[in-house]
Amino acid sequence: MDMLQHTLTEAGRLGLGVDMAQASGWPFGGPWVTPEDACKYVAHQTYTVPGGGQLTEAVRFVQKPLLKTVGQPIDIKQLADPIAKNANLQLHAFDQVRFEKPLPLQALMAYSDKGQALDLTSKVVADGKLSWTAPAGSVWMLYAVFEGWHGKQVERAGPGGEGDVIDHFSKKATQNYLARFDEAFKGRNVQAIRAFFNDSYEVDDAQGEANWTPLIFSEFQKRRGYDLRQHLPALFSKEAENQQHQRVLSDYRETVSELLLENYTQTWHDWAKTQGALIRNQAHGSPANILDLYAATDIPETEGEDLLRLKFASSAAHVTGKPLTSSESATWENAHFLSKLSDVKKAMDLMLLGGVNHTFYHGTNYSPQAAAWPGWLFYAAVHFNPNNTFWNDFGQLNRYVAHCQSFLQAGQPAHDVLVYLPIYDSYARPGKVLLQHYDGIKHGFKDMPVGPIGEELLKQGYGFDFISDKQLKQVKTTGRTLQTGGGTRYQTILLPDARLVPLATLEHYLQLARNGATLVVQNQLPTDVPGLGQLDKRRAAFKKLLAPLKFKPSGSAGVEKAALGKGAVLVGKDVNRLLATAGVQREALTDSGLQFVRRRHDNGHYYFVANWSDKAVDTWVPLQTAAKSVALYNPMTEQLGLANWRTSAKGTPEVRLQLAPGESCILEANSGTLSGPVYAYQQATGPAQPVQGTWNVRFVSGGPELPAPVQTSELKSWTEFKGEATRKFAGTAAYTINFAMPAGDGEGWLLNLGRVAESARVQLNGQDLGTLIGPTYQIFIPKGQLQASNTLTVNVSNGMANRIIDMDRNHVSYKNAYNINMSSKLKENRGADGLFTAEKWTPKESGLIGPVTLTPMAASTGAAGKMQ
C-alpha cells in the first residue's frame, strides 16, 4: 500500500492517470481465496440398476491429481492442500493444481426407461453406499453429480499474489475476494485510482473448464423455471441431434452467462463505485454473452488481430453510451524481436478501425538498470522497453495514436446498423465441453451466418455494431430512427439468419417496426424459441407474433416486405440489397481499398480512413454525410487544411484523398462553411531524381560493439558491409550525404528513402524534418529548406534481431523470466528446451537500403478557407 500510494502521488505530480490491476496476475485470485470460493468443475458418474436390484458399488468420485507448472518441477505429494499454504510459490509458478481427494456429491438421480425420475441424494450415506432398492418393472440409469476443484491458479502472479482463482459464478466468492481490498484500503486515500482492471477471464486456459458453482441447481430453477436435476442425461448427453438435450444445454449455458454477469462483473462494478472508481475489463474468453459483460463495464477492453472480434467491446460501449473502448495492443504481432514500428502502427490502425479509442500497449516488466542488454524481457513478443532499438523513434508512433484518439474520443459513434448477436443459436450447439467460450466470431460463432455477414458489411462499407438481447430490449423508435439505451442512434436492426430467438426479444423487435422502424432479416425469419421451460406456451406465443407478417415483393429484386404498424420488416438473402432497400447508405470509399470508422459531431462527421492495401490511393471518394466543408488532417505528419471536395450527383460530398500504402488520415465533414488554409496535395512535376554520391555511415549507438565507419556509394543492408560486427549489430547508424540543389520546378521535393530497415529520423542541413516509421518512408521538403549545397542525414535504427541471433548462437543467457520464459509463437523458433531461440535465423536486413530519390512536387489545392 505504501508503494501504491507513492505511485499515485508521483502520477499526480507528473499528470499521469493510474488504473490498478486487481489481481497480481490474472484472473482474479490469490492466497486469501479459500477452497469454498475457488473455481469449480462438475464431474459425473453413471450406474445401471435393474428393477428390484440395488447398487453394490459406492457412489463416489475421487479427483485425480493434476499439476501444471511452468517453473521448477515438484512432486504434488510434497505439496500441502490448499496450495496457498506452500512456500516458494514463485519458484514453481503453478498454473493448475488438483489434489487427489474424494469430491462432494451434489445430486444422485435415477431415471427409468419409462420416463420416471427419482431424487436419491438423501439416500446416500457417508461411505457412499446407496440405501435404495430399484422399483420393479424398469431398468434404472443413475446419474451422480460431484463438485470438483478446478485448480486454476493466478497466472504471472508476483510474490504474495499466488493462489487459487475465484469462482466467478458465485457472488459470495467475488465479495469475499474484494473484501481483502477493503481491508487493505482502510485509512488510505486511493481516490486517485481511476479504474480497477481485469486482464481477461482465462479461467479455462487450463485442463478442463470451470463450469460449476455450488448454487447452480437453485439458480437454474429460479431462472429457467424447471429442475435441472430432472434432466441430467440431457446435460451430459453426447447425442448431438437430440433437440431436448440441446434445449437443456442452452438453458444451462444461459444460466452460467447470467451468473457471470451478475455475480462477478456487476458485483465488481458496484464495489468499484464504493471506491469512487471505474472498472476496465477484458470480457473476451468468458462463457457468457460478452456483449453484456462489456456493457456492464465502464471501459470495455479488447485485444486481438481480427476486426469483428474487436467490435464486440466497442459495440457494447457504443450501444450503452460509454465514451471509451480500450485495447491491450500489439502483444503478439510477430516472433520475438521482429516487430517493427510499422507493424505496431498497423495493429493500432486495426484497433482504431474496430472502434478502440483508448490504447494500452500490452505492458513491460521491470528491468534493473544494471541488467545486461536486452534487460529483463516480458514473455510477449513486442518488447516495449528502452532497450529496444526502436525506442528512440517510438514517440512518433505514440504521437500518431494520440492524434487519432483525440478525434475518435470526440463526438458519438455514427454507425447505421445494429447486428443482432444470435447467442441462442450458439448456446444450443453441442460441443466437446459443457460451456461455450466467446472470443469474437471464431470462438462461439464459427460457421454461423453472422460471421460472413459481418465481413460483408465491412467490405461494403456499412458501419455497424453488434447488439445483445438484453441491449435490444432497451432500444426505442424515434420516428424512423432507432435509439439505444445509451442514446446512440441507428437506422435498422439486422437479424443475421438467426434460428432461435427468445419470445421477449422477438416481441420487442416487431414492436419497434410497429412504432415506425424498418427492420431487416437476412435469409429467413427465426423459426423457434430457445430453451425447454414452458416450451409449448412460448412456441404458441411465438407463432402468434409472426402471424401478422404478410410478405410481398418490395420492388427490389430478392427482397420481400411486410408492412407492420408504422414500419416494416424486410427479408432477403442479399444483405447489401436488404440494407439499400431499407434506405441505409453505405460508404463506398471501401471500393477504393480503404477502411474507415466514423464518428458524429455536432456539425457533421469525423472519419478515420486507412489505406492498408499495397497500392497508393489518389482518387475522389464519396462520403455519406451532408457537408459544406471538409477538412483533412494527416495524424502522422500533422499536415492539415481544407480538402478538395465536390458535390456528387447524389448531393453528397466527394473528397480527394492521397494515401500511400499504410498511410491514414482524418476527415472532418462539416455542415458549416469553413475557411482557411487549403490542404496541399502532392503532384509530381518531373521524374524522381536519385540522390547520388558517397554516403558516410557512422554507427552511433547500440551493440554489442559499434562497427567501424563505412563510406559507400551503393546503399545496401549494413549486414553486407565488411566485417562481422555489422552482422550482429543492433542499434542506430547515421547516414550522411552531400548533394546539390536538384533540378525541377515546384513548391518543394518529395524525399523518398526507398527501403528502410526499420525506422528513420531525417535531418536536412541540421534541421529536423521528421521521423519515419513506415511502411512508406517519404517526407515533403519545402523549396525554401533546400540550398545550393545540402547535407542530408538519416539516422536509421534496425531491430533487435541480429544481436539476439549472435547471443543465441553463442548461448549467451538473456532469458530471465521465471514464468513463461520467452515462449515462441511459432514452432520453428523453439529450441530443444522448448523456449524461443533465434540461432537458426540469418541476419535481418538493416539500415538505409534505398534507393533515395527526390521528386519535384507542386501543390494541388482547392478553395481557400478557415480551419476551425
From TrEMBL:
InterPro entries recorded: Galactose-bd-like_sf, Ulvan_degrading_GH
Among SUPFAM superfamilies, the record links this protein to: Galactose-binding domain-like
**Pfam families attached here?**
Glyco_hydro_106 (PF17132)
**What protein is this chain from?**
Glycoside hydrolase family 2 protein
Task: Supply the source organism for this entry.
Answer: Hymenobacter psychrotolerans DSM 18569
